[in-house]
Design a protein that fits this description.
The protein is an all-alpha fold. The chain contains twelve helices and no strands. It starts with a helix and ends in a 7-residue tail after the last helix. The model has no long low-confidence stretch (mean pLDDT 82).
Amino acid sequence: MKSKSTIAIIALIIGQIFWGTSYVLSEYALAVFPPATLVTVRLIVAALILGVVTVATGNLVRIPWKNYRWFLVAALCEPFIYFLCEAMALQRVSAMVTSVILAFIPLITPFLTYFFIRERITFVAIIGAIISVGGVMMVIVEKGGEVNVSIVGVILLFIAMVSAIGYALIIRKVPASFNTLCVVFYMFSTSLIYFIPTSIITEHEEIAGVIALYRENPDVVLNALYAIIGLAITASCIAFLFYSYGVRVIGPNKASVYNSIQPAVTALFAWMFMQQELTWMKICGIVVVFVGLFLSQINTDRK
């Protein structure tokens, strides 16, 4: 059991690293593709990849309707609401601000899990989450202590937070006998029921604009498409698989704390590839984030 939990923690860390880099890639792709279309293309690619892998490895199983209903609800929460709100928010706020606001998920999750499934809240876990968020704030606050954000963007990110917590709660209703690869494949395939109509109905004019841009400057569109494919492979396939596995092993409370890794990764990624400033305050914030993560994982039931 110990080794299983350790594997789950490693999987969560790797998943959060991929998600941390995804904000910058998403911001780049959004310069060409509208949000719903971006996520639709991303999930189509991810579903195709996961479908091939699932069939090739013999992990595809039939899901009974009594269990598939949970997939319909979970897919509505995440990827649909979460990814759509995240993409729309990235049009209004920076990747760094997006990552820090979504890092507040650990503070909200324990209270919602207690309310819905009566999962015990430990004092140390809450302290660890608060410390992590404090470190996150050190990462994103600029000189002068100000961060200019869009109110609409913040509201969209708050909706994304609630939907992510909803997904973490609902996914635990799926029987453990279903392997994670199959679960995520069905989740992405189901989410396309929501994404494809939304993209066609709300963004048909923007889609026509992307097609026109491709005729004039195909390289711009293709580079954005490559970014989406990268998102599908890393953030959607690998990260989502690892996160779903982690939630099913250690639970939504502890799994959600690892969201605090994302802003630190985003800051490092932006510094390395986008020449954004990485100050000593941000470096200290990254250290504080990991201290909070360590505290949140202390088992207070042991003497």
